[in-house]
Amino acid sequence: MQIDKEYVDQIDASLNPQLGMSKPISILASNNKNYFLKRQYVIDQNGVSHNENAVFMQELFVSQIANSLQIPIPSCAILNLEKEFLEANEDLRFQYHLKPGLYFGSEILNNTESNLVPHYIEAMQHGKPQIIRSWNSFFRNVENPEAYASIIALDLLTANCDRFGNEGNIIITNHHNNRKVFALDFGHCFLSPYWNKDKVRFMQSIPDKDQDPNNYIDYFLCKLLQSTNKPLNPLGTIFSGMQNNIFFESGNPFAKIISKIESLKSEDLRMFINQIPSVWVSGDTLQLDTYVNFIEKSKYLVRYLLERLYELGAFNNSLGGKLEWPISGINYGIQ
Ligand SMILES: Nc1ncnc2c1ncn2[C@@H]1O[C@H](COP(=O)(O)OP(=O)(O)OP(=O)(O)O)[C@@H](O)[C@H]1O
Ligand SMILES: [Mg+2]
Questions:
Q1: What is the Å distance from ligand 1's center to 90 Cα?
Q2: Which atom of ligand 1 is nearest to the CA of 188?
Q3: pLDDT for res 124
Q4: What is the domain range of residue 58?
C-alpha cells in the first residue's frame, strides 16, 4: 500500500466534519490532496483532555491490513505539520491546539452521504423505530455489499468496538447514484486508543491456535455489548444496518474474507508495522511485536467469533443451524 509522506500546506476548516471525538481538521497537503488530519490529544464531553498514544499507529497498521484484504478504506498519509507552518499561522495553532510533528491523515472522500447521519442520530435518540429501519435502508443498494461481511470480520480481527455502535465510522459515497461503502477510523482498535498495561494484558492473553478460544470470545463479546449499550440493537445500529444486508442463501458470506484473513502472512504484518514512524510508538519493540503477534493469533479466532454471533441470532437473514465453512484449501489469495 502506498503511504504518502507529505507536508501540511494549508488548513481549511470549512470542510471539518461535525462528527468525531478527535475533531479531525481538513488540510491541503503538499501532494495537492485533501486529508482529514487526525489528532492524538482528544478533549471529551467533560472537557478532559486524553492523550490517545496508540491512535496513529493503530490507524496506520490496520489501514494496511484492511487494504491487503481489499476492504474499501480511504487512502492515508503521514503528514508533517512543521514548526514554521504553525509559527506563520499562530491563530490556527491556538484555535486547534496544534503542535508540530507527524500526524495521521485520511484522504477526504468526496460526495459522502454522511450529512444524513446527524439527522438519523437525532431521530434515533428520540427512540423512533422507523428511523432504525431507515438506517437499514441507508445501507442497502450499494455497489459493494460484500464489504459488510468483510468490515465485520476486520473489526473482529482487530478487536474494534468502535464501529458497530458509532454512526460516524462507516461512510457511503455517492457518485451519480453509484453508492459505495467505506470503513474508516481504526484508532480505537485493540479495545482502546491507548498503549498501556491493560492493553498489553489483553493483547498478550489472546489464545494460541491450539488453545480453547472460549474465554477470549466471551470477554470480547462482552466488551462489544458494553460499548453499544442499546437495548433495541445490542451490537449497535451500524452492525444492525450491515448485517441486514448480509445473505446466506448462496453459502457462507464470510467464507471468502475468512480465507483471506487466515492467509495473512507474518512477513506482511511485519512490513506493515515497520511503516510506522517511531514517534508514534511509545512502547518500543515490545509494542510492535505485541501487535504482530496479536493478529497472528486473532486471525484464527474470527471464524469462531462469527459462529458465536450467528448462534446468538446476530444475523437476521440466517438460515438457522450452524455457520458452515467450505473445506479448507480454497485459496482466494491476497494482494
Ligand atoms: N477520509 C474521509 N473522508 C470523508 N469523511 C471522513 C474521512 N475521515 C473522516 N471523515 C468524517 O469525519 C468524521 C470523524 O472522523 P473519524 O471517525 O476518523 O474521527 P474520530 O475523531 O476518531 O472519531 P471518533 O469519535 O469515532 O473517535 C467521520 O465520522 C466522517 O464523517
Ligand atoms: Mg470516528
A1: 25
A2: 27
A3: 61
A4: 4-107
